[in-house]
Amino acid sequence: MAKKEYHQKFYLVREDVLPEAMKKTLEAKELIDRGRSVSVWDAVQQVDLSRSAFYKYRDTVLPFHRVVKEKIISLFFYLEDKPGALSKLLGVVANNACNVLTIHQTIPLQGRANVTLSLDIASMNVEIDELLSELNRLEFVDKVDVLSSGG
Q: What is the residue extent of each domain of the chain?
C-alpha cells in the first residue's frame, strides 16, 4: 500500500470570517493561559462553548501574534518501532535547522510508539509544510500531527 502524502496547509484568516466556535475556542484558551480559568470546563462555561468544540479546535486555531512571536511548534508522531527511527527523525529535524526543546516517547506497544517533539523553528530553513512532508515520508512514520504552535 502506498504511503499517503502529507498535504496539510496553513492559512491566515481574518477573525470576522471564523466560525463562532473557533472564536470562542480562542477566548477559552486565552482565559486558561492568563490563569482566569482553572480548567477547560471552567473556561468553556465562561465563553458558552461545548467542551467537544473546544477540543476539536484547540490545536488548530491560534492567535497570529503567538505564532509570529514564539516560533515554537509541537509535533506528534505515530512511529513504527524500528532501531534508529528516532535518531533518523531527529536528523531530519536538525538538517532543517530546527532546535529540539523537548522529546517525549511512549513505550512501544504492538510495534508502534508515539513521540512528541517541541521544536524551536526560528532558524528553520524550509516552510513548515515542507518539513512536515519530509518527516511524513520517512518509512517508519505512520502519521505526523501538529499539536500546537506559538508556545
A: 15-61, 67-149
